[in-house]
């Protein structure tokens, strides 16, 4: 809770008097009877009300006029292109700015590879900075350098790109919340920050799996709130990496032909995939990019099927294919 | 006010990554498939395989390889072996250790005898049977590393075994991810390689084959590198190592053999 601060009328002596009367925070001040405050501080009633009004003005949500909103809406950047042609076509406009995007897939399906490629593409031909939040040591600068080398970039160009990719190691969810808080409060300043990639969130969330309280959910909620605030306020894109797990349903289907004396029951197995992080999270991302690795086709290249779902229209799932090779993700 | 978080830029990380040495497996083919000429310090590798596929043998070889003298580009460091399933046998480790060191001496053309006792002092063994002992040891691992800064390899054989009994599925996932996050934070900071072994389990009905690594799908995301070991011909010494997941190298299959001396290339 915010402490009561100095004001034209609230001099140091008055603040001390208030403190002696256990009126320390803004809330204490607002809850106290105005007449009592007036006698305590020896200010007149209208001055007290003026202070109250000043506090309300300072702390209330801002009123924005519709026309300003409209101007902001048409002047701000709304999307960042991924730089991967087939993916850009499917996404129509790229990764949304100011909203949360999720990349999910099974283990080894290329999530981290796609993230590293996105980091390269976002900074390549601009002054943008990407912050890569690594929770399991998956980020490989050598891999990025090899991709750039395969594209024939000079050492100098490679260094320029690498300098624009920032990496931070985070090992638990409390740390992640503090990091986002630091960025919000401006303690941690990153110029030209245009994208935050979190690889991966479940790694942190699973640490609270099986706790009997719902602390994990509380933390998740705080991460989401900070992310939403940051993405809107600083005009940045947020990519969360999520994982998928597989479940198997056993269906016993009775053969239609019941006449046969020994009815052989067919056992069929249905493999189902679920995105982790629970039901609450499902409603959070505005865009879900699902990766599925296809069978190895050639020795040097892996094809990945990409399914794209927008939250505006969850039933319309578009798909495309991307390739992962020594040249990165194309 | 400065931030508590260290933000690296990728060039700094590139310098760190390229300067980190690796622990050789003594099979050039396997080293090539793993990338970085072996198991790089600071990495987290998971070895998967059915019983008898060579997981423990490879771990023992790495514990010996970590002692390769500096003159040969080795690390001349120590290893910590956390045994959770009593798979370890000292006689087999001595066999691998001394033949590996003898090989190094042959290459260096040196005639200084190896002092067995000194070599064995560079190997730290912890028998952690049961979940309590295992967790308790991992919690005080930072102290252990502080006392023995020359430890550059930590082997946990196996990671799944302590969790087989006495813990619910949900709690298992939570505890496992907490332990591994702490372990990785410590080892990344101190530049220590971690090798875990994991058993296989059967999940009927999976489209990708019913035999998968244990600890579930969630766990399979955790390690940077997953290597599946298999014995194509059950009675022979040839083993295959398939990279299932890696952040640095393409998926590939390596070949090596287990001899009396340890892990070697197939002749």
TrEMBL record, chain A:
Transmembrane segments: none
Name used for this protein in its record: DNA repair protein RAD51 homolog 4
Keywords assigned: Nucleus
GO cellular component: microtubule organizing center; Rad51B-Rad51C-Rad51D-XRCC2 complex; replication fork
PANTHER family linked: DNA REPAIR PROTEIN RAD51 HOMOLOG 4
Record InterPro entries: HRR_RAD51_Paralog, P-loop_NTPase, Rad51_C, RecA_ATP-bd
Major localisation: nucleus
Record GO biological process: DNA strand invasion; double-strand break repair via homologous recombination; reciprocal meiotic recombination; telomere maintenance
Subcellular location per the Swiss-Prot or TrEMBL entry: Nucleus
Domain RecA family profile: 76-245
Pfam family name, one: Rad51
Source organism of the structure: Vanessa tameamea
GO MF annotations, alphabetized: ATP binding; ATP-dependent DNA damage sensor activity; four-way junction DNA binding; single-stranded DNA binding
Automatic annotation (TrEMBL), chain B:
One GO term (biological process): reciprocal meiotic recombination
Molecular function terms from GO: ATP binding; ATP-dependent DNA damage sensor activity; crossover junction DNA endonuclease activity; four-way junction DNA binding
Organism domain of life: Eukaryota
Domain RecA family profile: 19-200
Gene3D superfamilies according to UniProt: P-loop containing nucleotide triphosphate hydrolases
Compartments in which it is found: Nucleus
InterPro entries reported in the protein's UniProt record: AAA+_ATPase, HR_Repair_Mediator, P-loop_NTPase, Rad51_C, RecA_ATP-bd
Keywords annotated in UniProt: ATP-binding, DNA damage, DNA repair, Nucleotide-binding, Nucleus
SUPFAM superfamilies for this protein: P-loop containing nucleoside triphosphate hydrolases
Protein name: DNA repair protein RAD51 homolog 3
Organism: Vanessa tameamea
């Amino acid at each position: 809770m915010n402490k009561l601060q100095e004001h034209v009328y609230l001099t140091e002596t008055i603040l001390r008097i208030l403190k002696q009367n256990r009126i320390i925070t803004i809330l204490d001040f607002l809850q106290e009877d105005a007449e009592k405050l007036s006698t305590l501080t020896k200010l007149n009633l209208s001055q007290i009300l003026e202070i109250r009004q000043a506090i309300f003005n300072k702390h209330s949500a801002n009123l924005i006029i519709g026309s300003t909103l409209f101007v902001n809406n048409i002047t701000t950047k709304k999307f960042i292109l991924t730089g991967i042609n087939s993916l850009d076509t499917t996404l129509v406009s790229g990764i949304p700015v100011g909203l949360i995007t999720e990349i999910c897939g099974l283990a080894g399906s290329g999530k981290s590879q796609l993230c590293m490629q996105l980091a390269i593409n976002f900074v390549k031909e601009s002054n943008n900075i990407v912050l890569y939040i690594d929770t399991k040591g998956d980020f490989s600068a050598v891999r990025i350098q090899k991709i750039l080398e395969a594209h024939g970039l000079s050492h100098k160009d490679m260094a320029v790109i690498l300098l624009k990719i920032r990496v931070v190691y985070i090992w638990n969810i409390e740390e992640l919340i503090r990091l986002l808080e630091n960025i919000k409060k401006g303690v941690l300043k990153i110029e030209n920050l245009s994208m935050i990639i979190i690889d991966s969130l479940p790694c942190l969330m699973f640490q609270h799996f099986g706790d009997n309280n719902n602390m994990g959910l509380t933390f998740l909620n705080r991460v989401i709130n900070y992310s939403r605030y940051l993405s809107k306020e600083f005009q940045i894109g947020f990519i969360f990496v999520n994982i998928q797990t597989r479940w198997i349903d056993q269906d016993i289907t009775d053969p239609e032909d019941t006449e046969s004396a020994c009815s052989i029951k067919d056992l069929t197995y249905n493999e189902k995939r679920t995105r982790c992080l629970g039901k609450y999270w499902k409603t959070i991302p505005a865009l879900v990019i699902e990766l599925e690795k296809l069978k190895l086709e050639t020795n040097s290249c892996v094809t990945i099927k990409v399914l794209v779902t927008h939250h505006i229209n969850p039933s319309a799932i578009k798909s495309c294919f991307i390739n992962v090779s020594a040249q990165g993700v194309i | 006010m400065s931030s508590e978080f260290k933000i690296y830029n990728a060039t700094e990380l590139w310098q760190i990554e390229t300067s980190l040495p690796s622990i050789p497996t003594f099979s050039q083919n396997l080293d090539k498939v793993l990338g970085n000429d072996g198991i790089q310090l600071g990495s987290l590798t998971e070895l998967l395989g059915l019983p008898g596929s060579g997981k423990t043998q490879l771990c023992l070889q790495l514990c010996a390889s970590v002692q390769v003298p500096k003159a040969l580009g080795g690390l001349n460091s120590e290893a910590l072996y956390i045994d959770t399933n009593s798979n370890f046998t000292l006689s087999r480790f001595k066999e691998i250790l001394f033949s590996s060191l003898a090989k190094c001496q042959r290459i260096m053309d040196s005639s200084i005898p190896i002092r067995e006792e000194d070599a064995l002092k560079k190997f730290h063994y912890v028998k952690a049977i049961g979940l309590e002992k295992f967790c308790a040891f991992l919690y005080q691992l930072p102290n252990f590393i502080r006392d023995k800064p020359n430890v550059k390899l930590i082997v946990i054989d196996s990671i799944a075994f302590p969790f087989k009994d006495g813990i619910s599925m949900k709690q298992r996932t939570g505890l496992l991810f907490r332990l591994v996050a702490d372990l990785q934070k410590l080892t990344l900071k101190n530049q220590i390689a971690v090798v875990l072994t994991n058993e296989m389990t059967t999940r009927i009905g999976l489209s990708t084959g019913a035999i998968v690594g244990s600890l579930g799908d969630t766990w399979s995301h955790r390690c940077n590198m997953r290597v599946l070991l298999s014995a194509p011909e059950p009675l022979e010494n040839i083993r295959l190592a398939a990279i299932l997941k890696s952040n640095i190298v393409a998926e590939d299959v390596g070949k090596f053999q287990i001899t009396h001396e340890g892990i070697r290339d197939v002749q």
